[in-house]
């Protein structure tokens, strides 16, 4: 649970590596977890904020718990993409979202 954003994240990502946005969307929308059934794919911004919280607020501890490595599916409006965030070469906070044709799902829901 992210107290700052009010988002509840699926702690253990999907076991399956999905090769289409439709499959990833179906997985998230049919997920029943922790007594909730309103899970969805995160937006790319929400996924970025999860990475940001890991890197800068929790000194890398979140990565050990939720396994942020690899590619994940996101949904921004009607656009569903798989990709991953990578550190850029420039100094400071510099993240690049790189597209992929497959990814895991880490579903999210509003807790408020």
Question: What letter string, H or E per element, gives the SSE order?
Answer: EHHHEEEE
Round the mean pLDDT to the nearest integer and report it.
80
Oligomeric state as shown: single chain
Q: If strands are numbered along the chain, what order do they take across the biggest sheet?
A: 2-3-4
Structural class: alpha+beta
**Level of helix content?**
25-40%
Strand tally is 5
Number of helices: 3
Distance from first to last alpha carbon = 11 Å
Rounded to an integer, what's the Rg over CA atoms? 14 Å
Parts with pLDDT < 50 across at least 5 consecutive residues: none
Task: Describe this protein with a few key phrases.
single chain, 112 residues, alpha+beta, 3-stranded antiparallel sheet, two-stranded antiparallel ribbon, 3 helices, globular
